[in-house]
Amino acid sequence: MSISRQNLTAVIVSFKSDQVIDNCIKSIPNEIKIVVVDNSNDKKFKENIEKKYSNVECILSSTNLGMGSGNNLGLKYVKTDFAIIINPDVIFEEKSIDKLISESKKLDTFAISAPISSDAKYPNYKIDKKFLRDEKNLDPFKVKSIDGYAMVFNLKELNNIENFYFFDENFFMYLENDDLCKRLNSYNRNIFIIPRSRIKHLGGKAVNSEYNYEIELSRNWHWVWSKFYFNKKHYGYLFAFINGLPSLLSSIIKFFLYFLTKKNNEKQIYLQRVLGFLNAAAGKKSSFRPKIKN
Q: Using CA atoms, how far apart are residues 141 and 76, in angstroms rounded to an integer?
């Protein structure tokens, strides 16, 4: 069966996202079912969003699962052949979903496809440098990987891969999409960008602004941890350690600099970078969670 509005389900992982998620949902046609996985376990949020939108089912997670695990949970509730993973701070331009559907039908086969970011300065894909792309050409084109804030899964194609799994749940946030795409490349599966379908990504706005500092600490810890884990998984421990060492030394120096100048917020940020590296190097799980109460 081909992709259509009725054969596509949207999965959105939220965490204190009530300031932005309405604009995301409103940009999705009503015929498309939406599964929201709320990592803050907010019963009031679930009640409000399901009352407001007839096509939304909200799943409450008992703990903060992060992005990869949250999306994996949401995918368990998908009954269609296609699912689109979306961050709550993504907005589809007018008719972008329909263009995503119609353009995908032109492809012989694909494992993942994605709309293109409306901000050309921040492309949501990585392409092999040896292939030059004519930006005037709006046909779908193959890429090595895409950013995880908007990606269409061809579930039949993916489920036919032996021993395949969606997101590696060891990642809490960052690089889980790169890991997924790298594994698909090893299986010779196709990943496409659909230029006629455009999205706006607000970037770093998925969580309400009142929690900015706690989220910033979390981002710094997890970026370093995830980078080490990704490199260790695909290239080995020694590569991961050597690759991360310059950043570790820089973070230590900046930690002491801000310690001496009594800039506590900045000091804490670089402390989290150091701790993220040390935890990953010691083989410990991605354990840092932002301290946010319901």
A: 29
Three-state secondary-structure class, residue 116: strand
Partners of 191 in the beta sheet? 112
Q: What is the pLDDT of residues 130-184, one digit of tens each?
A: 666 777 788 999 999 999 999 999 999 999 999 899 999 999 999 999 999 999 9
What is the domain partition of the chain in residue ranges? 8-201, 209-281
Q: Cα angle at 168 between 70 and 27, to 5 degrees?
A: 40
Read off the DSSP letter of residue 104. H
Phi, psi (5° rounding) for residue 181? -65, -40
Amino acid at site 234: H
The CATH number assigned to the domain with range 8-201 reads: 3.90.550.10
In the beta sheet, which residues pair with residue 261? Answer: none
Identify which of 8, 173, 154 has the alpha carbon closest to the alpha carbon of residue 92: 8
Give this prediction's pTM.
Answer: 0.93
